[in-house]
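Hello,

I think I submitted the uracil job twice by accident. Can you confirm which output corresponds to this input? Input:
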Amino acid sequence: MTLIRLQKYLAEQGIGSRRACERLIQEGEVSVDGEVAEIGQQVDPASQKIAVKGEAIRTEEPEKIYVVLNKPANVITTAKDTHGRRTVMDCLRGLEERVFPIGRLDQDVDGVLLFTNDGELAYQLAHPKFLVNKTYQAWIKGEISSDALKRLREGVPLSDGMSAPAQAKLLKSRKNASLVELTIYEGRKHEVKRMFDAVGHPVDKLRRIAFAEIKATGLRSGEWRRLTEAEVDVLRKSVVLQPENI
Ligand code: URA
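Support: Only one job matched these inputs. Its output is below.
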């Protein structure tokens, strides 16, 4: 049960300003479960019937939306940029519902970025105490050795502590560059770039190819689509609590 002050709830539902809602309550125009309401009354909109001028307020939650964007490399992950730069929100043209990004990708990183209006699931997917796999492909400088790959798998020292065990696979090797696929379940700031720095192979180009198994296959750079129900199911199941938090 979530209790909220009646005038705050009415204002959040777009009935009017907080002041206007207080006036409506004072004038006896608002009822809770059929009784005339009072200013400051705590209500549980999920279980109580709230009406204004005899008309019930819709209490259903807005439909939950889940979207995957193939983020281009030149946009920043923020809901609103104060410097007028292009943001990931500008890529979601055509989507009418309000959503927010789940976690973030650096400006120069492209690939899978998820959005939702489901605060609970977004919290779990972005929080480090839940283990959610994120897979990256990185073009790095130099030819990476099997020893360096092993160190990435076991954990490397970073300024904020050792990185957690990861999966690391060499995909391509050239004279002065290597393409490595790295799967991590943490999500510290610039973590992948810092992990490669720590083994002496700075990243030239980074792409996230999966977030909790969700991919952007078939989407061109800057395109988005809604997740299927099966994908949302996969997302929910991907949230696993770290053993020390269980
Ligand atoms: N690791 C990084 O270094 N950058 C990102 O955007 C994501 C993971």
